[in-house]
Write a structure and sequence with these properties.
mainly beta
Amino acid sequence: TPSWLNLGGPSFCSFHVTMGSTQSLPNNVHTKLNFDTETFDIGSNFNTTNKDFTAPVAGKYYFNTAMRSSTTHGSDDDLSIYKGDTGASTNTAYATESQFNQVSGPAYVTASNTMNISCIMDMAASDTASVYANTETGPWTMGNGATVTFFEGFRIA
């Protein structure tokens, strides 16, 4: 086993969280997604109250998030993983996916959209990671299907 893959040590952590209910996002507000249901949380580093992961030690961490909306709308939409705990108004997104959805006309009609993003983030001990979404045409409702709206991550080095 490589020395950095210390599965039994205190620095190993891994989590997978979902949303217990749908979440309506307002228009043009970067909103933290309500990941409040833990599937697992090895190391107890995900906070379901604050909806964020806190790094137990410095290192490189892999994060992946996905969401599926449960409402039809035409808009520019963003899904982002943020580093830091002061919110989208003061932090820069670490990774973002953007989509444009047109719900009228012959070419693009969507009943819901799905977005997925992942990244590897350098984190210091106590840095946080969380997921935000934004829509230019609100409200926009995030679905709560456990296999389509989730946030997960683990320490890789």
